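User: Please predict the structure of the protein below. I'd like the answer in structure-token form so I can feed it into my own downstream comparison script.

Assistant: Understood. Taking the following sequence of 108 residues as input:
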Amino acid sequence: GCIHYTFEEYKIEPRYAEDIVSGFINGISEWLPAQELSMFPNPATAAVQLGTTGAGTATFTDALGREALQVPVQQTNPTLDISALSPGVYTVQFTAASGRWASKLVVR
């Protein structure tokens, strides 16, 4: 077969202006880093109280990145039942219209 090899510099030549996405380093839209989410107690066994100021969604993700639990939140400082979670370390992310907060939670 035919092999083509060159010593030229790599060039990015977009076809259309819409091909250029500004603000993303790798072309993937990413969230800004989350703010700290307060939780009590930590470590927890059956329930945890989140320090939130309104409605949103609490998502519990295990150490392998799998979503273990997702709970809709309708009130301020809710107490969530986490008895379905296996013992381990989870990242708890609370997402609301006003922003995103996250923290680690140890479940015993």
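That's the full token string. The mean pLDDT is 82.
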